[in-house]
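To fix ideas, we close by showing one paired sequence and structure record:
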Amino acid sequence: MSASEVQTFTPREFHRQAHDALGNPQIRANFRKAMDGLMAKRRDVFSDWDLETLRELGANIRLRALAKLPDLLERLEANCQANGIQVHWAENGDEACRIIRGICERHGAKAVIKGKSMVSEEMHLNAHLEAAGIEALESDLGEYLVQLNEQTPSHIIMPAIHLNTDEISDIMHTRTGTERTRDVDTMTAAARAQLRERFMAADVGVSGVNFAVAETGTLCLVENEGNGRMTTAVPPVHIAVTGIEKVVEHLSDVPPLYALLTRSATGQHVTTYLNMISSPRKPGEHDGPNEVHLVLVDSGRSSIYQDDELLDTLRCIRCGACMNHCPVYTRVGGHTYGTTYPGPIGSILMPHMMGLEATKDLPTASSLCGACGEVCPVKIPIPDLLVRLRRESVGEGRGNVPGAGVKRSKKEVAVWKGFQWLATHPRGWRSSTAIAGKLQALMPSKLGPWTEYRTAPKPAKVSLHALVKRHQAGKFDEDGEERS
């Protein structure tokens, strides 16, 4: 997509946007090629590991941290402050933006350079700063490209995965004057040259956080390009922004999670850089910021924390593996979801942040094949949570998600309750399918909202089970014809 073709996406229009994406062969080709490669790399890099044991360890580390979350956040604050890091608390994204803008204004900042941070995307930090007259430039190459193209990331790890080489070349030529080329190294070098002087001129650097260690007050940042290290070390002020769930208890918890994150996300044994930030520049040190700030953002996470089932959502380490393996995401892409976090993880996380009424189509954007749950490195039961949200979106279940409670008609409820009973009682199921086969001509072609996106089923005259039994009883000849 060129800069002149920028679109706006919303979760309320998921079905229309999905239809448009499925009709775009370029989007499907871009994602298919990228996802196939990522799945193969993940499979290969775990080939000589006891993956299930490592996943169990990762899940237990995250569960232990969540079980102690309030205490760990207080320990993190205390140890960060002892190290010289200033800690700020934000109830929501707007408050976090005001805190960051206030820090920038106190330093007279006119230019901010940003490392990759999905929380900053979640709170629309760039737009907030620009409205205050502060330039915010993305330094991650993928984020830089989508910013040039006036888009949002389509993947939490690879923001520009929806673009192919020709599209990237066109964007860079149109926006920066770079000569058109299909050579990836040439385009990468051009982008780095454009960004390097901006690192040196920036007044403030903003980054995300992968793991915040309560034990030591250390902020861990995982990256491949070096922009994260430049962002956190070159400008005189560094602001790290993260969700409150990213805290872990011990420094020794980081290596297992790091091993799971890098392998699940990009199929790498390790990333090029693992930055561990524990303080501002100390006397005698030659580089590093004069100030380090940590902004801890809630934005609905405390509400999730109160629900003993949906709490599992907070285990996420943002690897993107669930997206890479999801048959829906890989065909329609991230922008189709219209949310900061797309794919399976977004479908269980965004209803808390935006309300279920605004995102009610997202839990249904799944085939429930279970691939997302099977590959999740910290064993989040994503399919179970999708089913839970589906129930709540139609007014059933616990109703703890904001905006839940859209009611179905009594007739529709009765029909699905009847189906549920039949599907769990074999004798009733066999009897009903036998009767339905005989009355198949009377089957209606429309079954309410259920057939808006599906073809109404037509029961077979004879079920597969019945045919198998007849075959086993010798009622068919060698050509498969039923004996008279």
Remarks:
- Residues 413-472 form one domain.
- Residues 25-45 form the longest helix (21 residues).
- The beta strands are 85-90, 111-114, 135-138, 204-207, 211-213, 218-223, 237-243, 247-248, 273-277, 291-297.
- The radius of gyration is 26 Å.
